[in-house]
Design goal:
- The chain has three domains: about 15-110, Orthogonal Bundle (Arc Repressor Mutant, subunit A); about 115-185, no CATH class; about 195-374, Vaccinia Virus protein VP39 (Rossmann fold, 3-Layer(aba) Sandwich).
- Helix content is about 50%, strand content about 15%.
- It contains 17 helices and eleven strands.
- Strands 4, 5, 6, 7, 8, 9, 10 and 11 form an eight-stranded mixed sheet that branches. The chain has a three-stranded antiparallel sheet with strand order 1-3-2.
- The mean pLDDT is about 95.
């Protein structure tokens, strides 16, 4: 099993096991797995609210229904029904009558990024997924390209002229769920852009008075904090830029400047070494991405580089995570997760050339693309 320490080998093994399981399904099994998927997510979301998975994971061995009810405050009869469904779907293990314990999936659900992801995908995205079939039928199955007319507007009955970001700004509860997920999803991950890019080598003689790293659309600044932690002695200013509501809640990392900025306006930080976008451009259709990149290009100096940290969808064999993010972008932003050729076409329209692509997380397709001005 040592080979499974390799992430790509592990994902390949998982896929083969799932393909085998799928090949053994009866029609009723397929109905069960697909039709009740949303229900299981709802029950998991309830379990997170109750602190159920943390309790079971911390418990020394099995716990009785009465013990779990005392710990969570839930009605024992209701709790038994929820736990039996979770056990039937492999989320917890039932080991006896009214006796349950954690398993590997239970423990995975205690990881902060996973827990936050379930909350965000259920609360923020679930209604959009429910609306998707009706929206596609109403629009005659056209591919959405108008950010002001896609699934999110219909799912949440948004005000005229509002997009997904406007909706979040007006819904602070959902915004907080989104910000938490975005800030911790890859927190502590070993595979990031910093693990593949030669930052120190390219900044050895950088002028400390100039910006070295501008994180554009960087939410509350987790990437800035990680940059400063890994490279505390790299010379130059380190800057976070995002919408005012995100900057207002930004992490106060020593040595990081937090600046409100709209990337549909010209970039005010001139001549930086790295202009960095992480999971920003997939939120916008092609024309908007070209506009954003042109605004950044206008500020570039001779030594400037744009770093685009995004999913690159493989032409064959895309993972379920990658395809799910792609359709999520369709729902919320009339946008897409792009293949390499699609990215290159957008870059060229913006007057940029891709020098390299460095994949750092195979399952999700997350990669760092290095661009220079033409």
């Amino acid at each position: 099993m040592d080979a499974l320490q390799d992430p790509q080998a592990r994902q390949s093994f998982i896929k083969k096991l799932r393909d085998l399981a799928d090949s053994l399904e009866t029609p009723e099994n397929t109905l069960d797995r697909i039709a009740f998927g949303g229900l299981t997510t709802a029950v998991v979301r309830t379990g997170i609210e109750l602190g159920l998975f943390h309790f079971l994971s911390k418990n020394d061995g099995p716990a009785t229904l009465e013990e779990i009810a005392t710990a969570t405050g839930a009605n024992p009869i209701l709790l038994g029904r929820l736990l039996r469904h979770l056990s039937a779907n492999g989320v917890v293990s039932q080991v006896g009558i009214n006796s349950f314990q954690s398993n590997h999936v239970t423990q995975n659900l205690c990881v902060p990024g996973v827990e936050a992801g379930v909350n965000w995908f259920f609360e923020g995205l679930g209604p959009q997924y429910m609306e998707l079939p009706a929206f596609l039928k109403r629009t005659n199955y056209a591919n959405p390209t108008d950010v002001m007319h896609t699934v999110v507007q219909d799912a949440y009955k948004l005000d005229e002229g509002d997009n997904a970001f406007d909706w979040l700004q007006k819904d602070p509860t959902t915004l907080a769920i989104f910000q938490k997920f975005m800030s911790i999803r890859r927190q502590g991950a070993q595979e990031t852009w910093l693990s593949v890019y030669p930052v120190e080598e390219e900044t050895k003689s950088w002028n400390p008075d100039k910006a070295v790293y501008v994180n554009i659309g960087g939410n509350i600044g987790m990437q800035n904090a990680e940059f400063k932690q890994k490279y505390p002695n790299v010379p130059g200013r380190v800057i976070l830029q995002d919408r005012p509501e995100n900057v207002a809640k930004a992490i106060q990392t020593p040595g990081v400047e937090n600046i409100a900025y709209d990337f549909f306006t010209p970039q005010p930080i001139k001549g930086a070494k790295f202009y960095y976008f992480r999971t920003v451009l997939h939120n916008w259709p092609d024309d908007k991405v070209v506009e954003i990149l042109k605004n950044t290009k206008s500020a570039m100096g001779e030594e400037s580089i744009i770093l685009v940290d995004e999913i690159v969808v493989p032409d064959v064999g895309a993972s379920s995570w990658t395809t799910s993010i792609d359709l999520t972008m369709l729902c919320g932003h009339a946008s897409t997760a792009r293949t390499q050729s699609q990215w290159d076409e957008v870059f060229e329209r913006a007057g940029l050339m891709r020098l390299s692509t460095m994949e750092y997380h195979g399952h999700t397709g997350e990669s760092l693309m290095k661009l220079q001005a033409l």
